[in-house]
Amino acid sequence: MFAVWINNEVYLRAKGELSVKLKGLGCKAFATNELNKRFVLSDYYALTESILKDNVLMRTLIILSITQIRKEKLESVLSKIGRIRDLPNLSVKYERALKKVGIDNVDILRQIGAENAIVRLKKADIGATEAFYWRLRGALENRNCEFYTEKEKEKGLNKLNEILSANGFRRCKRTLKKVE
């Protein structure tokens, strides 16, 4: 829940940098509910009239709040998973390949990232294909690897190619599918 409407005020959920930004814009933290004193919303801030009137700013703050919540949820899901094979898109086959290069669990994989895991696999001369990269990336984002858009694939492949070339490996070539 990214926002709540209570007593004719909109409260937006925020933590960390976003909460500092909201406080800087004059937003006040939710205190207590007059009807039910036990009802407390932590990390919610009342949006000021100036924010509510500025559609662009309000939209930006809402998107930041939703992004923050999604990131927290993803971290929560991934922290509960210990074995690599339990991640989406990955199986025992991929877990064994990653263990050969010192990536034994999900925490290490998250710290290293999909791109650097591919570099480690290539350095160990273990088959690290583009498909393996998308499986790793999807697993770290808790997302099916088949559902990346062409734009996302292009952006991700550019990032992978930068890291590959920085480590002395050939860049992946990709031919984008043309929609007919």
TrEMBL record:
Gene3D superfamilies: 5' to 3' exonuclease, C-terminal subdomain (1.10.150.20), YgaC/TfoX-N like chaperone (3.30.1460.30). Pfam families: TfoX_C, TfoX_N. Residues 83-155 form the TfoX C-terminal domain. GO terms for biological process: establishment of competence for transformation. It comes from the Bacteria. Residues 1-68 form the TfoX N-terminal domain. Transmembrane segments: none annotated. This is DNA transformation protein.
